[in-house]
Input
Amino acid sequence: EIVLTQSPGTLSLSPGDRAALSCRASQSITTSYLAWYQQKPGQAPRLLIYGASNRATGIPDRFSGSGSGTDFTLTISRLEPEDFALYYCQHYDDMSPTFGQGTKVEIK
Amino acid sequence: QLHLQESGPGLVKPSETLSLTCTVPDGALSTTSLYWGWVRQSPVKGLEWIGSIYYYGTTYYNPSLKSRATISIDTSKNLFSLKLGSVTAADTAVYYCARHLLVAGRSRLAYFDSWGQGTLVTVST
Output
C-alpha cells in the first residue's frame, strides 16, 4: 500500500498569501497519478487537481499542482477567503487508491 | 457535477450489517469508462476508499475491507449499494458515494470527480 504523508498539518496564512502544501508518497508514483481535493466543514471533498497538475473543471487558476515520483505540491498563488479549508491528496497508482491525512489551511 | 444521494440507517448495532444506497440521475450508471465508488471518512482513519463497481458488475475493494464489503448495482433503479458486515465502533464514519473515473484510455481506477453529500453512520448499541 502506498502511504501518502501530507505536510504541514496546519498552515496559518493570511488572505493574499501564497500557500504550498506538500504530499509525499512512500514509493514512487508512476505517471503522476495523483489528485488533490478541497474539503470545507460539512461538505464532501471537491476535486481540484488530477494527474498531478491538471485542474478540474471550474477550478480557478490560482490553484496549481506540480511534482513527480514521491514529492508533489499543491500551490495556491493568492489565498482567497473561500480557500481556507482542508486539502487532501490521493494517489491512483494501483487498484487500491489511498488518501493523505490532510493539511488544514487556516486564517492567521 | 453529478448529483449523488446516499441513504440508509444512521445507526447500526455492533456485529450487524451496514447497508447504504446511492441514487444517481436516470441513466448515469450505464455510462462506460467509469466506476461508482464508496469512500468513508472518520476522525481516526481520515478518508478511506472502500470499493468501486462498474455498471456491469465488476468490483474492486480496499484489501483491508474486502472480506466484509459488498457493492452491488441496479441500473434499472439508478442506484448502487454498499453492505459492510460485522461492523464495530471503528466503522463509525461519514460514508460518501462518488463517481470514480478511470485513467484515460486505461482500465485503471483514478480519482473521484462527483460526490454525494455524505451520510453519518454510527455503530453503537
Q: What stands out?
A: Chain B touches chain A at residues 46-49, 60, 62-63, 96, 98, 103, 108-113, 115-118 (CB under 8 Å). The longest strand of chain B covers residues 93-102.
